[in-house]
Automatic annotation (TrEMBL):
The keyword Transmembrane applies. This is Uncharacterized membrane protein (DUF4010 family). It comes from the Bacteria. Residues 18-142 form the MgtC/SapB/SrpB/YhiD N-terminal domain. Residues 191-400 form the DUF4010 domain. The chain crosses the membrane at residues 14-34, 46-65, 71-90, 102-135, 155-174, 186-206, 212-233, 245-264, 276-295, 316-336, 371-387, 408-426. Keywords: Membrane, Transmembrane, Transmembrane helix. It comes from Halomonas organivorans.
Length: 428
């Protein structure tokens, strides 16, 4: 009785999986049939019925490969490919369509039917949905390719090079003086900062100019708030009436640095968040609030050009320089911590913050795992952010109008003092 029940359950499950295979084929067939809906009956190579049957055939091929012979699946796959090629060849003189996308979709349907029966129906369903989406968005995908510039494609490939190819090859162990350098972790942080800059570049590329000061400033904080500060400061000289709005934009860009700091911390050292989040949240919140007050006080609807974007969103040479900077900061941090204790870390943070916050943030976050205390890391990060924003405040005052300088300097000073006081108060 138990064997009969087991056979019934197995047959029932097989029937359900074959049904899934049929439905997944129908899903892809609906998209193919809709794309060719204007063709006459018989002119379509494969529509909803053909794809549904091919999906079912793939499922049956998977079952027969187990029950009859392992050659059933490849032979049926070759048969489907041959039939599709013959049909494609016969239709070419009339349609002048040389695309093989439909043929690939048909073969995918066969394979997904097999996956639904022999492996995992959920995986097959996910792949079928993605396949249908890709087939349905031909115009949009080709449109994106037409908009993509050569140096941007080059940047994307380089990002894949440093992340997918190089990262797995690096040793994941401590090396150098005091085992302070871990090549895998250092390069992972290089990939992290490069990816953030890459995303910020394309955010600015796609909508910065059209959305005006607010949109530009928000996404410039992901790429380079320093570049935006310089651009807006110079722009205020040419358009003094825009100074309040430009000041709000600078505050937004500088405030975006703080969520970025928390994001790095979340990925590298989540245990640091309870101590780092209060001062960083206060500093960023005060800058955003000040920007909102200035923004709401204006009645103008102004748009400005986005800052000039880098010619390449990701240069490999810059990535290598950033990796070298990270390694140097970690070595200096180890030596200064041994020689001067926490004071050395704070001096390192202040000097590093003059040029960049990301490198010292990533370094101190990493060092808090085994070299320095969490309170020291938090205060060091806040010091670096304070110095960095103070430098940008000086840029706004020195290169922009007096009105711009005042509206940037006062909120920046309040934010920095509040963050330092909170971080110092949380230090044991």
């Amino acid at each position: 009785m138990d064997e009969v029940t087991a056979q019934f359950i197995t047959a029932h499950e097989a029937a359900l999986r074959l049904t899934v295979a049929l439905l997944l084929g129908a899903l892809i067939g609906i998209e193919r049939g809709w794309a060719a809906r204007e063709k006459k009956a018989g002119e379509r190579i494969a529509g909803i019925r053909t794809h549904a049957l091919v999906g079912l055939l793939g499922g049956l091929a998977a079952l027969l490969s187990v029950a009859v012979s392992e050659w059933v699946f490849p032979l049926l796959l070759l048969a489907v490919a041959a039939i599709a090629l013959v049909a494609q060849r016969a239709s070419m003189p009339h349609s002048r369509d040389y695309s093989i996308t439909g043929l690939i979709g048909l073969l995918l349907t066969f394979c997904l039917g097999a996956v639904a029966v022999a492996m995992d129906p959920v995986l097959a369903a996910a792949c079928a949905v993605v396949t249908a989406l890709i087939l349905d968005n031909k115009r949009e995908i080709h449109g994106l390719l037409n908009k993509l510039q050569a140096h941007e494609l080059d940047a994307g490939l380089k990002l894949l090079l440093i992340s997918v190819v190089m990262l797995p090859l690096l040793p994941d162990r401590g090396m150098g003086p005091g085992d302070a350098l871990n090549p895998h972790q250092i390069w992972w942080m290089v990939v992290l900062i490069a990816s953030t800059s890459f995303i910020g570049y394309f955010a600015m590329r796609l909508g910065g100019a059209e959305k005006g000061i607010l949109f530009t400033s928000l996404f410039a904080g992901l790429s380079s708030s320093t570049a935006l500060t310089l651009h807006f400061a110079r722009l205020s000289r040419r358009n003094p009436e825009l100074s309040p709005l430009l000041a709000a934009g600078i505050l937004i860009a500088c405030g975006t640095m703080f969520p970025r700091i928390l994001f790095y911390c979340l990925l590298i050292r989540p245990e640091l968040l309870p101590r780092l989040a209060p001062p960083v949240g206060v500093m960023g919140g005060l800058l955003y609030a000040s920007a909102l007050v200035i923004w709401r006080g204006q009645r103008q609807d102004a748009k400005v050009d986005r800052p000039a974007l880098r010619q390449n969103p990701l240069e490999l040479r810059m990535a290598l320089m950033f990796g070298a900077l990270l390694a140097a900061i970690m070595l200096l941090g180890r030596w200064l911590e041994e020689g001067l204790g926490d004071t050395g870390i704070y001096l390192l943070a202040a000097s590093s913050g003059v040029a960049d916050v990301d490198a010292i943030t990533l370094s101190l976050t990493r060092m808090s795992q085994d070299t320095i205390g969490m309170s020291t890391a938090v205060l060091g990060i806040i010091i670096a952010a304070t110095v960095n924003n103070a430098i940008k405040s000086g840029m706004a005052a020195g290169l922009g109008t007096a009105k711009l300088g005042r509206r940037v300097a006062l909120p920046m000073a309040v934010s920095l003092l509040a963050g330092l006081a909170l971080a110092w108060g949380l230090t044991p």
